[in-house]
Amino acid sequence: MHYFISAGEASGDLHASALIEALKAKDPEARFTFLGGDLMSAAAGHNPLIHYRRMAFMGFSEVLRNLRTIFGNLSEAKKALRSSGCDALILVDYPSFNLKLAKEASRLGLPVYYFIAPKVWAWKEWRVKQLRRYVRKVLSILPFEREYFAGKNVDAMYVGNPSKEEIDSRLSAMAPSEEFMRTHGLDPARPLLALVPGSRRGEIRCNLPVMDAVAMRHPELQAVVAGAPGIDPELYSSLTGLPVLTGVTSELMRNATAALVTSGTATLECALAGTPQVVCYRANGVKLSYNIMKHLLKVRYVSLPNLIADAPVIPEMLVHLCTPDSVDAELTEILPGKSGRDRQLDGYATMRSRLGDENAAATAAQTIINDLQSLK
Description:
alpha/beta
């Protein structure tokens, strides 16, 4: 079968590449047209129709500045969807773009599957109508989503969490800490502080300066920035003088004593790596924005570990609360010897048990194949 897959960010590229491998294992004749990145390219054996570097824009102003590119991408993707002769459209996160693509696929009579669904339980709940109208099945990676979607008459199933599988696999293959430190020229005598400012330019510009300021208050810690793929090194050097390591984020988090992490998938990955963290989300840093966000959000928490554990496992420093003083106060509470560190690690154990042991990519691939065969 011919699968059309759309992923618009680095995390989507990672999860979609595993899905491609799983589809190939179960469908030897599988062919792919896709929007994504280098990992999907390696899995599929050819380049993407559109690389996610042309798609990953964050925030109103950045989106506004790049509207021509965004509309051009959507037009190109719709055209390819019409001409590719694909059997199904598989969407991976990135809802603003992907739901428009889902509408086009529905108009063409193509079955649509959503792997890593929009977080409609948190905000923009009106998107539920689009999921119900255009998406045949939601393949959820968060255990609490199945019950939520069932209550909204959306066909959804929990397939497992890919981050858990990916991180556990990496952890088992990681070199000893001493080797990691030696390979990257780090001082083995100083504990690491991992700064994970996000994978998009806007996130990095907003959050890295706060993280850098906090790191300067802890000379006893060796602060290192986790660089994101596709981001120019000049962006990091314009915001910090700290060393940047790209392509080893999981290893950096695993070997760190603590971490400052921008809200997103990385918070879950850091929790799975077992490293205490403070969640940062600076954005515009305006109290009005925070009050609006609190009004719009439908959930008590923002970070994935807190949502999965259904408890305040990790401190969340959001918008105007994300200042060097407040982040530093929370960081101090999770350093070795502090009670906050043990509480966070206990919360991580609860979160892990709720995620279960399903192989997300394999389960999702088999579900899609079975469903497509039922339509023949």
